[in-house]
Amino acid sequence: DQQVKQNSPSLSVQEGRISILNCDYTNSMFDYFLWYKKYPAEGPTFLISISSIKDKNEDGRFTVFLNKSAKHLSLHIVPSQPGDSAVYFCAACQGGSEKLVFGKGMKLTVNP
Amino acid sequence: DVKVTQSSRYLVKRTGEKVFLECVQDMDHENMFWYRQDPGLGLRLIYFSYDVKMKEKGDIPEGYSVSREKKERFSQILESASTNQTSMYLCASKAQNEKLFFGSGTQLSVL
Is 90 exceeded by the pLDDT of residue B23? Predict the structure, then answer.
């Protein structure tokens, strides 16, 4: 049973517009959420995270929103740039566990 | 910067061969992980280790074994490679309550 779901496999947006990547989770014990970005033939790199005590975290062009009641989080990228084209993974973990549970990933394409 | 180094970027092996995948991290992290990434399936945890000599099965441990003899090194062994083990293998490490750092990955092809 998938505990972290990224239901859209891909997203295409124009440069300069907003990209919104969605993630849903089923385990109410998750209290820490992360987004990773992965380019082809490279390992994933950490992008941004959010603790369950917050509902928003911002870092430059990247903002993550958390809706605990809906068990939903989203990553907003604005403005989108061609270099943002990559696969994005949503991940979650619960307090006391060092294991991250990942979603299946979503391929973002930003067109010039 | 944290460095997680995987010994090979690309490997081509034949069915039935033994495969060694090595991973070294330089930040004294307690926790180390092996994932595989397949299109449409995301990142799936094979094994992880939270201390020297300790290991725990992840979600898909069948066909794999691991070894953590030293804190900085986490090795994975495929005793008899099969074609369904063709994949990108990613090693990662993390300190307690910190984010996960990944290596560059090993693309393994089993023919």
Answer: yes
Query: Does B97 score more than 80 pLDDT?
Result: no
CATH number at A94 reads 2.60.40.10
d(CA B44, CA A29): 20
CA–CA distance, B60 with B43 (Å, rounded to integer): 11
Residue B60 included in any domain: yes
Count how many domains chain A has. Answer: 1
Shortest distance, CA A69 to any CA of chain B (angstroms): 24
User: Has residue A96 got a pLDDT over 80?
Assistant: no
Are residues B42 and A9, on separate chains, in Cβ contact within 8 Å?
no
DSSP B40: T
Query: Is A42 in Cβ contact with B41 (below 8 Å)?
Result: no
